[in-house]
Amino acid sequence: MTFDEAYSGKVFIMSRKDYDAADVVIYGMPMDYTVSFRPGSRFGPNRIREASIGLEEYSPYMDKHLEEVNYVDVGDMLFPFGNAGKSLDIIEKYIDKLLADGKFPLGLGGEHLVTWPVIKAMHKKYPDMALIHIDAHADLREQYEGEVLSHSTPVRKACDLIGPENVYSFGIRSGMREEFEFAKQSGMTMEKFNVAEPLKKHLPKLAGRHVYVTIDIDVLDPAFAPGTGTAEAGGITSKELLEAIMQIAKADLKVIGADLVEVAPAYDPTEQTSIAASKFIREILLGWTT
């Protein structure tokens, strides 16, 4: 079940080797074909893996050690370069396989459009699912410059599939006027600018439910994460995102999978974006999968 060991050559820290025995599967989705500003997020998954080598295996936030989680990093998916539609099909079929095998999918992006086929696969198994979306951008467009497959559309597609009342967006500070109007009128939940405090307010509404969580690294202010394709000033701190991850870990939810997307290493020579992303993945492994 390993995709591309020759290309990847790296795995997330303390990854096991036995797919069959693993409870959690980390996989990379190196696609950035529909981005509207700066490409390069296809290199994100491997940089997150490389940055993880600098992490401690123990989390003082969760008071847990990575040895307590049985996970395997299968590497990056192989996509037909430039073919977004076929690449999305590959993702959906692979998530179907992970869910059939009883695995917790933990994806590394890649642009945010890669979340859409994961949601489609999740919805087939969990038709009652809700979505927690943490991002700077609304991602509620129906199309971008005539293209319906765009990194600005996945949350709108999710609303159409699972119902807007089951979509909860946090940290939003950018989008077209029409996107914000749709959020108001559709019945979805959109909390602007902040994440941790409004998340605390809404988590009780999701008690007992199956929830998928998608995090776009650009929810962080560029001061904390400059290495992303569509940086947006006025974001949250790394500390606030860690707090949000811990809140989800402590809530009465059934987290069924997650992804972290839009790390674009070329724009961050300090590697602080990849370093932060790898830490978030550690906390997700320890907080949401055990």
UniProtKB/TrEMBL annotation:
Pathway as given in its UniProt record: Amine and polyamine biosynthesis; putrescine biosynthesis via agmatine pathway; putrescine from agmatine: step 1/1
Annotated keywords: Hydrolase, Manganese, Metal-binding, Polyamine biosynthesis, Putrescine biosynthesis, Spermidine biosynthesis
CC cofactor: Mn(2+)
Substrates-to-products reaction catalysed: agmatine + H2O = urea + putrescine
GO molecular function terms noted in the UniProt entry: agmatinase activity; metal ion binding
GO biological process terms held by the UniProt record: putrescine biosynthetic process from arginine, via agmatine; spermidine biosynthetic process
Record-stated family: Belongs to the arginase family. Agmatinase subfamily.
This protein's name: Agmatinase
